[in-house]
Structure formats: C-alpha cells, structure tokens
Amino acid sequence: MPPEKKPLLPGLYLVSTPIGNARDITLRALDVLAAADVLAAEDTRSLRRLMDIHGIALEGRPLLAYHDHNAPAVRPRLLSELREGRSVAYAPEAGTPLISDPGYGLVRAVIEAGLPLTAVPGPAALATALTLAGLPTDRFLFAGFLPNGSTARRKALAELAAVPATLVFYESPRRVGEMLADAVLTLGEERQAAICRELTKRYEEVRRGSLGELARELAEERLRGEVVVIIDRNRGQADAGELETALREALKTMSVKQAAGEVASRLGLPRRQVYQAALKLGEKP
C-alpha cells in the first residue's frame, strides 16, 4: 500500500535509503519521497526502482541527478527550488547521505544560504557492520576509503595505528586482499578484524579473525559486492601515566573490578593488565 501523501514544509530533506534490502526503508522516508515537490538522487534509476517497489508514483515531479560529477551545475537549480519555498528530497544510491556519498557541497550551500535543512535517518553500512563485527563499539573512527596505491595506503594506515578506537573502512572488493596485506605490515598481524560483505542482502557474509588470518585467507580470493573492513584498536601497552591517571579517577567512585573494566574498555587495553594495575594502586596508601 503506497504511503499517504502529507504536505511537507519547505526545505532540503536528506533521505537515507536501504543498503541492500529494500524493506529497510523507514516509514518517514517513504512519506518524504511521496510528498516532496522535487526529488534529487545520486542515481535516479536506483531511486525510481525503490519508489516503484514501495508504490510511490513520480506524478510529474522533477527528478534530478545529483552526484560528484554534475554537482556544480545542478546545485543552483536545487537552491533555487528551496528559495522559492519548495521541498526537495535528496537520496544517495544506498545508505546515508554524505557518509562516503555525495551531498556535502549541497548541505554547505543550504546552510550558508540560511535555508531549512533536515535529515531522514536510516541505514548506513558502517553502523550495520559495527553491530555485526563483534569488536568494541564504545569508540570508533570511520576512515572511509583508503588510497588505492600501496605506498599511500600504508602511510594512511600508519597514521591510524595508535588511534585508541575501532577502525572502520569502506573498501573495493577487488582491493580487500591488498588492503589486508598492507594492514598486516602496518598494524601487525595479531589485531582482530572483520570483513563484512553484502550487508542486508541475500549473500551477507561476515568473516572474523586476526589481520594475519584474514590476509592469508583473502590473498588470492576475489570478493564480490560492497565491503566494510573493521579493525580492532591497538591493544599494546598504554602510557603508564595515562593508565594510572585514568585508574585513580575511576577508583574514586568504583570498585577495583569496576574501575578496571571501565578503563580497559576506554583505553582499549587487556582487562587483566588493567586489573593488575588497579590492584597495585589500591594497595598504595
């Protein structure tokens, strides 16, 4: 049953779309797509297909392609529509706008012009992968796509090596093996990781293991489909001063066990190591 058309207030609506399964669209996204005066999409064919699946007719409304290659030419038209008091819905090919998808330039222009802007949240491959990887999610860094060349890729990975957070990357299925090989050389083969592929689709797959194990497994294999790579944070020795400061603060309000667990999670350190340090601090006068 098609959504009921409800009038929209003027403004730009950033609409998140499914990353695979068409039923992951939100009810609010369907309402916006059904009622917007103007539609813009990274891929107009993908948006038309999604609308057809959910029974939303275009009904003569403008449907404009807006992507990295034509953005400078199309952006003035969209801004003009907004200035004239119309509602404009923008949808990426899949996922959340601006998350490794076009739209940043449009959003900046809308903000600078003082025009209304809102988001219609929904699926994102990075969030879906984080929930499935089995790695810490209390703190993570989304690094997008790494450079294509090995030298530049290793340099980028080296800059992230000490970041105390789970690392999230999008990667081409053709380059996953090469990327993992460079990650082993740069980050070490023992770091835990997960390769998440074709999320929400029929052939969804998550492979978990150390970087070394996954690199050997995928050295010759060629994957298909969208890929997200999740890599655990560095779990080496933390700076002794940083660890002691964090533990002393936590021990003011927590037991030794609770403080060790909280600090270990926050600093990305083995719980046993932090617990032993907390015990020593607890023994000091």
TrEMBL record:
Gene3D superfamilies according to UniProt: Cobalt-precorrin-4 Transmethylase, Domain 1, Methyltransferase, Cobalt-precorrin-4 Transmethylase, Domain 2
Keyword Cytoplasm: yes
Alphabetized InterPro entries for the sequence: 4pyrrol_Mease, 4pyrrol_Methylase_sf, 4pyrrole_Mease_sub1, 4pyrrole_Mease_sub2, rRNA_ssu_MeTfrase_I, RsmI_HTH
Catalytic activity: cytidine(1402) in 16S rRNA + S-adenosyl-L-methionine = 2'-O-methylcytidine(1402) in 16S rRNA + S-adenosyl-L-homocysteine + H(+)
Xref: SUPFAM superfamilies: Tetrapyrrole methylase (SSF53790)
Protein keywords: Cytoplasm, Methyltransferase, rRNA processing, S-adenosyl-L-methionine, Transferase
GO cellular component: cytoplasm
GO molecular function: rRNA (cytosine-2'-O-)-methyltransferase activity
RsmI HTH domain span: 238-281
EC number per UniProt: 2.1.1.198
Keyword Cytoplasm: yes
Protein location: Cytoplasm
Domain Tetrapyrrole methylase: start-end pairs: 12-215
Main location group: cytoplasm
Record-linked CDD domains: RsmI (cd11648)
Family to which this protein belongs: Belongs to the methyltransferase superfamily. RsmI family.
HAMAP family: 16SrRNA_methyltr_I (MF_01877)
NCBIfam families with a match to the protein in the record: 16S rRNA (cytidine(1402)-2'-O)-methyltransferase
Its biological purpose: Catalyzes the 2'-O-methylation of the ribose of cytidine 1402 (C1402) in 16S rRNA.
Protein name: Ribosomal RNA small subunit methyltransferase I
Source organism of the structure: Meinhardsimonia xiamenensis
